[in-house]
Design a protein that fits this description.
about 500 residues, single chain, mainly beta, Trna Endonuclease, Chain: A, domain 1, RHS_repeat, RHS protein conserved region domain-containing protein, Rhs_assc_core
Length: about 500
């Protein structure tokens, strides 16, 4: 059992008593500035007993991870990861909004004490006051989301004063584009009138340090956040599998040039364009990126749960083509080491999500689990894992493939799924904005049918909540040509899998 420790009320009473004793000592010793140092015997003893008790507990209680590979984790009452302490002392602190979405991540060189962080404290008479922290984070990352819960902005504040902002555009649940803006670090500037521009002096002989400047001065047009790059992503139809990426990067910003005649000439910014193609594995995870000429510009190999083992000859593009796409539906944040997985964040080092499943137990008993087997399962939305739909052993996959064979045997035509690639069906206003039926087919009479394969409740008939919601969306939220004639369901609980 948890050891008995001092309650907050008992601690407050003890502190008040000690303050009174200190005041009495100072009155009795007017020549002294400070009372004798107190040894917080009760607090230290309680902390020691709690540490011993926590060390005796299993590393994972109630699916909440406490320690892995000498990295320690702490969670809040909602099950969200709030602190991660790495073996070298590097500490990450995480903050969440009311919807349990990650909104900030801060990195410190060592675990900060509570009174070293910025905080709000109660004041006499009610209310609170803000107290600035004495310890600054080495790196600070914040996030913003739209009304649908999709991440739309990432802001990175670096120790040198540089600020980077990335804005994301979405096509439903699929990432469409990102644009990056940067605030340069502090420079030496030349003040001209009411303007504040970075100046560059052009010399007659650039190689001669004593050369005089020519009668020309170039001024970089400096904004608060200068556009740096943009990337447009193309995916396989109806899936999260990346096909290509179209890049545009800033090479030289726009500037104004003045000649000896005093006229201003604006020189436009120069950008570099690039088209890159993804080479994916059987799960749709990028293994390589090649440019238009077929040259490999990015190459990586993965650990089992998605951690990247960068190849020594990868990233050979001198401009620096990088890839932030990982498992299907994941966008890797280099700053935090986490991957944004649409509805929550995934930690590839731990092989699990950092917060609970938003759909609760409908996504599985382990609410932090990514998948049973990361080499054969995916979770593009961060909600519910699923196996590959184009083969593989397992009751779910076998039932889908068997359904496709039944359709063909009855004279129907399989359009998507049923052992083939799935297709996305838009369901605006539903539990989700889009659904991927396990099978879409037309029967012998020409009727369009959407079919789902899933688990049922203990009665052996009623679909679980997640499956029922999917069918409700397909029945009532589809529009126009996407509206089916029928929606059907088959249970796979009793589907045998050979060899098992």
């Amino acid at each position: 059992p948890r050891p008995e420790v001092e309650t907050p009320e008992e601690q407050a009473s003890r502190f008040a008593r000690e303050r009174a004793e200190d005041a009495a000592w100072l009155r009795a010793n007017p020549g002294e500035k400070y009372p004798p140092l107190r040894y917080n015997r009760r607090g230290v003893e309680d902390r020691r007993r709690l540490d011993e008790w926590e060390a005796s507990l299993p590393k994972c209680i109630g699916n909440v991870l406490k320690e892995l590979n000498r990295t320690r984790y702490a969670h809040d009452a909602h099950g969200n990861l709030v602190r991660r302490i790495e073996p070298d002392g590097t500490t990450w602190l995480y903050g969440y909004d009311a919807a349990n979405r990650l909104i900030e991540a801060k990195r410190y060189a060592k675990p900060p004490e509570a009174d070293e962080l910025a905080r709000r404290e109660p004041v006499a008479g009610g209310g609170t006051r803000f107290v600035d922290g004495s310890v600054r984070p080495l790196l600070e990352v914040s996030f913003a989301y739209d009304a649908f819960g999709r991440r739309t902005k990432k802001k990175v504040m670096r120790p040198d004063g540089g600020i980077e902002r990335t804005f994301f555009t979405w096509d439903g649940d699929v990432l469409l584009m990102e644009e990056r803006f940067g605030l340069p670090v502090k420079h030496e500037h030349v003040y001209r009138g009411l303007e504040f521009r970075r100046a560059q002096i052009v010399c007659e002989e650039p190689q001669d340090v004593y050369s005089l400047p020519v009668a020309q001065r170039m001024h970089t047009l400096e904004r608060h956040h200068e556009w740096q790059a943009a990337s447009l992503y193309l995916h396989e139809p109806g899936s999260f599998v990346p096909l290509a990426r179209l890049d545009e990067k800033l090479v030289e910003p726009a500037f104004l040039a003045t000649g000896t005649d005093g006229r201003f000439v604006q020189v436009a910014a120069r950008t570099r364009h690039g088209t890159y193609f993804y080479q994916n594995d059987h799960l749709g995870t990028p293994q390589e990126m090649v440019d238009e000429s077929g040259k490999v510009v990015w190459l990586a190999r993965y650990k089992a749960w998605g951690g990247v083992k960068r190849a020594p000859y990868g990233n050979v593009d001198p401009v620096g083509a990088d890839n932030r796409i990982r498992f299907q539906g994941q966008y890797h944040d280099e700053e935090t080491g986490l991957a944004y997985n649409r509805h929550r964040y995934y930690d590839a080092q731990a092989g699990r999500f950092i917060s609970k499943d938003p759909i609760g137990l409908a996504g599985g008993v382990n609410v932090y689990q990514y998948a049973d087997n990361p080499t054969g399962w995916i979770d593009p939305l961060g909600l519910a894992k699923r196996g590959p739909k184009t083969g593989g052993c397992g009751p779910h996959n076998e039932m889908i493939a068997a359904w496709g064979k039944d359709v063909k045997a009855a004279g129907g035509d399989v359009i998507a799924g049923g052992g083939q690639q799935e297709a996305l069906v838009k369901t605006p206003g539903g539990f989700k904005s889009g659904r991927r039926p396990d099978i879409i087919y037309t029967d012998a009479d020409g009727n369009t049918v959407y079919g789902n394969v899933g688990k049922v409740r203990a009665d052996g008939v009623t679909p679980v909540t997640r499956e029922q919601q999917a069918m409700d969306d397909l029945r009532t939220k589809t529009q126009g040509s996407d509206a089916p004639d029928d929606v059907q369901f088959r249970a796979y609980n009793c589907c045998p899998c050979k060899g098992k």
